Amino acid sequence: MAADNEEWATVSVEDLRSINVDEISFEAESPTDSPRAQGDAQVVSIDVDELLNLEYIEEDCGDSPKPPVLEGTDGICTVKNERPCNVEMLHPKALVCFSDWCLDGEKFSWRIWMTICYLFAFGLSLSLIVLWAYVFFPFQLPQVGFWENWIFNFVAHPVGNYIVARAPMGWFARQIMWHLQSDRSLGKEQRREITKRLQRCLRWVPLVDSLWCATEHIIFAGFHIFPVPFATVLSCIPAAWVSMAVFYRVLPSEARTLPSTLDSLKFTMCAWMGYCTTFIVMLFYTAFFPTATTEVQLAMSCSIAFLEWLVVKVVFGLGKHWRVPEHLMREMRTAMRLPVIVFKAMILSEAKGIVVIASMIVPEVIAVFSSFVVVVIDLTSETNKLRLTHLRSSRQLVRGAHGLFHNLRALRKRLAEIHGNCQQITLQEFRDATWSAQEIHLLNEVSSSLSTIIMLEVCEVMAPAIFVILLMCLRSNTFLAQNESFFLGLAEANFQESLIRNAYSLLLEVAMLVATDLFSRKTIGLSFVSVMRSVLQCDFSFWLSTLSAAYVGWLTVLVRHTGHDMNFKFLWLP
Q: What does 258-279 look like in DSSP terms, one character per residue?
């Protein structure tokens, strides 16, 4: 009997995965049929789809063994006899967010106040970076030559190049650090040291972009060519590629030799190419939009929305091919939507008619709502998401929708249970407690998934606000107004109309943020406010770098010193 039990215990998850049935139930034989079942009779219900989800549990919880017994509970599988995990397995964002539920956690009013402070600090930092690069430094006319414009060529433009180049390196480094944390062959101290070295490289390698671009402009100046025609294409983008190659070469050997590093580099470069393509398209969009008729403007807005969707779709497909983690791809999706959001704030005053204005704003609202729906579907059940993508009949659609609704209720119930348990313990007990691998996985997924939607919302709120601040600075009577005539579209913009329409856009985005928060509370019982503070607290520098790159890149393609003249009458031609 002992030998038989030992043989049964060696059945692996892979063996069970190979069974081609939807659900298998094993019932212990009756005492009359098999003596070995006496005293050990039990019922084990195994769902093969649930077994497929164990790989995610294993990633989140170190060396947790494969649990021998599973049973379905409210659409979310629970694991018995599972080795518990320490709270250190929680991502810092999840730890900050969910620790507030404890007895001695921070009060709700204080959390609201801290969220407002973080949001204000983020917006202020973003505004200062944008203004410092291209508004604080006074420029000369482009016609006076290269050396007379030394402030632009050797101060403003290198600073702008540094800010823009740091963004794709940050995306790449973020993927590497995630894979470092998942590599069990490295010790904790070793991972910490590699992360420090990676962060040092992230600070100085973007200078390569600035030096390369400045050198290229000096060479052009030697041939009496200034401004460089379409400098973004001829100098800025090649400089970013060179700096990324240098960044890859100076990576710590432990990080560069990871199997996933090369795929992460490919994914980052593809995302960067899509990002730059969107910038180039939006430059032409901005140039021709004001003079277009109402019908053409509407067609242009719809085309841009389709292009944005297509670029994100292609990059997502490549990310899945290279096995990039889902939450990192969601961050890239948010980053790649930023150029469209930034440019639309500038040309909102040029829209002819309420229908055109709606065609510019509504797609961004839909993007936020659809992103939240996709996240909810991902959080509820991987199996039902799989069934919805392989529909063959209306019956399967009804079953899949019913399963998603059932799992959504189960997800809300699970989060409510965790919330209730945390409310009964102190913060120290929360940190000392042991958690199941599924709870760790669930809390990490909730915090990482919602963070990308929150930052997309933040950018949509920041876009009209920063544009209004920039326009007011350039129209002021102070030293900040010296560069107004050097920006395409800004000098010709209707100041009063821009203020009014961007104010309405700002109010709409704030209302959308409140509506999304209420919808999140209703569906999964979690407020955006707590998640927003944790994101801004833990990923402040990453998102500041990502958003500032979009705004600085936007001004780079607008300033006349970079040769983006849509009239094709370049000053350097004889």
A: STTHHHHHHHHHHHHHHHHHHH
Q: How far apart are CA 218 and CA 220, in angstroms?
A: 5
Q: With b meaning 16 or more CB within 10 Å and e meaning fewer, what string describes 510-535?
A: eebbeebbeebeebbebbbbbbbbbb
Q: Which two tokens stand for residue 190?
A: 């070793």
Can the peptide bond before residue 227 be classed as cis, meaning omega within 30 degrees of 0?
Answer: yes
Compute the distance between CA of residue 433 and CA of residue 158 in angstroms, rounded to an integer.
50
DSSP state of 145: -
Q: CA quadruple 180, 186, 190, 194: dihedral positive or negative?
A: negative
Q: How far apart (Å, rounded) are the C-alpha atoms in residues 401 and 514?
A: 27
The one-character DSSP state at 11 is: -
Q: Report which secondary-structure segment, H or E, holds 554.
A: helix 540-558
Q: pTM of the full predicted structure?
A: 0.78
3-class DSSP state of 80:
strand
Host H or E run for residue 72:
strand 69-73
Distance (Å, rounded) from C-alpha 298 to C-alpha 363? 12
Mean pLDDT by 10 residues, the chain (574 residues): 42 42 38 40 34 34 34 35 62 79 80 88 91 87 90 91 93 89 75 88 94 92 88 89 93 87 92 89 85 90 89 90 86 88 86 87 81 75 48 68 75 81 80 76 79 86 88 83 84 80 86 83 78 87 92 90 69 48
- The CA–CA distances, whole Å, from 555 to 149, 342, 348, 406, 551 equal 17, 10, 16, 48, 6
d(CA 311, CA 27): 51
DSSP H or E run through 9: helix 2-9
HSE-CB for 23 with a 13 A CA cutoff: 8
- Copy the structure tokens of residue 329: 């791809």
**Beta carbons within 8 Å of 507's beta carbon, 6+ residues apart:** none
What number of residues does the chain have?
574
Residues 6+ apart with CB under 8 A from 175: 260, 264, 267, 268, 324, 325, 328
Q: Is 127 helix (H, G, I), strand (E, B) or coil?
A: helix
**Chain centroid offset of residue 544 CA:** 12
In the chain the first and final C-alpha atoms are separated, in Å, by 96
